[in-house]
Here is the input.
Amino acid sequence: MFASKQSRIAGFTLVELMIVVAIIAILGSIAYPSYVEHVRKTRRAAAAGCMLEATQFMERYYTTNMTYAGAALPNLGCMGEVAQFYTVGLTAAATATAFTMRAVPTAAQNDARCGTLTIDQKGTKTKSGTAASVAECF
Here is the structure.
C-alpha cells in the first residue's frame, strides 16, 4: 500500500499535463506573430541598407564621371544576401542627373506594410505600402 501511494505522488496526472500544454500553446500563439513581424522588419532593414550601399556607388560614379548615365551597378555582396526577399536595382537607366533605386519585395517577404522601397539621387525615400510614414520602413 505504501509503495502505490508513493508512485501516485511522483507522477503527473493527465489534467496537469494538459494544462501545461495549453499554457505553452497560448504563449506560442502570442509569440509567433511577433517573431514573424520582427523577421520581416529585419529583412526590410537589410534591403534598405543594400539600397543605400548601391546609392553610394552611384554617387561615387557621379563624382568620378560627372554623370549618372552609363552607370551599371556592380554585383554588391548585399544584393546576394537579400535576393531571396528583395530585388534591389535601378528602376530604369540613370540619366545624366538623376536615378531612382528601388527594393521590390518578393513573394517570400510579403510586406504589404511598406511594399516597394525607393530612394533617388536627392535622398528622397518613398514606400508603396500602407505604413503611415516612410520612417517606419527605412
Observations:
- Residues 14-65 form the longest helix (52 residues).
- The first strand starts at residue 86 and ends at 90.
- The beta strands are 86-90, 100-105, 117-120, 125-127.
